[in-house]
Amino acid sequence: FGSMATNKLNRSNSEALYEKAKNYFPGGVNSPVRAFKSVEGSPLFIKKGDGAIIWDEDDNEFIDFCGSWGPLILGHNHPKVYAGIVAALQNGASFGAPTRLENELAELILSRNPFIDKIRFTSSGTEAVMSAIRLARGYTGRNKIVKFEGCYHGHSDSLLVKAGSGLVTFGNTSSAGVPEAFANETLVLPLNDSEALKSCFEQFGKEIACVIIEPIPANNGLLLQELSFLKELREICTQNGALLFFDEVISGFRVAFSGAAEYYGIAPDLVTYGKIIGGGLPVGAYGAKKEIMACVAPDGPVYQAGTLSGNPVAMAAGLAQLTELSKPSFYEDQERRTKLFTDKINSHAKAKGYVFELVTIGSIFWISFDNSKHIHAAEEINPDMTNFKHLHRALLEEGLYMGPSGYEVGFISAVHTDELLLKAAQLFINALDR
Ligand code: PLP
């Protein structure tokens, strides 16, 4: 795919900035995937975004399907979000004291979300998950947690753990600097595997504080789980007194207002949010029913805090964004437009006999070079990502910006109109046909 390059991009300004950045930051970046290591070329430095369009420092223009990795469900520079941020900022950037805006955002979320009674705002998804894991342990008085291979939950120690060999395994650390003792408390299972799940609970049932899953796994390909598996998770957690923890940092406010829990109709005990909840500013959150949240400080013994937690400018951005999402048929329309885009590309690929598919749910899509069912980790399906590398460059040259990793998903925003998506689908097809 995309082997014959045309419209070669001028990257000279981005390249110069990247050379400088390498003197300042490890790998020239402040988050590893941005370094373009798994695709061709060097990172594009983005200058500006408006609606569904972004411009880089060489004034190349792209239709953006990364959306800052998910938060920008209303696109860049949305007038309501912009106005909310400016209004809050005029009163000051931060107080480290309660503000009315925290109440308003919490009220909007809790009034529409049947799964949680209380919420705590943090400054990132990682922080939300890390804190919620501590809460699960504090609430249950147990230490072990279960996670699934192919799910990403941020970079806290307990979760930078990958599967060992065998069906039910103690994890191995997937980063230097994580003590083995931490990894030993994390059990890693294959996704959608009911036998492995049962066997794990038979061995460790009474030691497990929680089972954490991305209910829509979207960090290692888009690995849609069978509904029966998610239901089984719910049951086995209940039977064993373990908490079911849905990490909805991507799926929350993305597939439905109350995330995958609402989409699938399954009630988790603990939920985390991030990305969309902050309207493009740094916000994460965790929530649960009253009796669980009663364990959190200052009400209870599980400590968690943050200088900038509930920051008023970030709360205003989240409030403005979530207000738009709570309007009728927002999610139906997102899904309809996403299908317009993916169906056009998929039909073309099928007619040409390409081993290629855009896998989709809600307004999320993933580029797959495999036509079988996608349930297990993407590394198994597509170990070297050569096809993705070539296609990624061709897509950039056609004017479509996708995140620089074949394991990550793409996102469609409310300002990707029918017209723009049909145009983008044609550009995508051009890239595929090269
Ligand atoms: N959980 C999930 C499911 C995520 O996708 C991510 C980030 O992509 C995180 C947690 C971590 O969030 P953050 O990058 O805001 O720390």
From TrEMBL:
Pfam families: Aminotran_3. One of its GO terms (molecular function) is pyridoxal phosphate binding. GO terms for cellular component: cytoplasm. Pathway: Porphyrin-containing compound metabolism; protoporphyrin-IX biosynthesis; 5-aminolevulinate from L-glutamyl-tRNA(Glu): step 2/2. The keyword Ion transport does not apply. Its EC number is 5.4.3.8. PANTHER family: GLUTAMATE-1-SEMIALDEHYDE 2,1-AMINOMUTASE (PTHR43713), GLUTAMATE-1-SEMIALDEHYDE 2,1-AMINOMUTASE 1, CHLOROPLASTIC-RELATED (PTHR43713:SF3). This is Glutamate-1-semialdehyde 2,1-aminomutase. The lineage of its organism: Bacteria, Pseudomonadati, Bacteroidota, Flavobacteriia, Flavobacteriales. The gene is hemL.
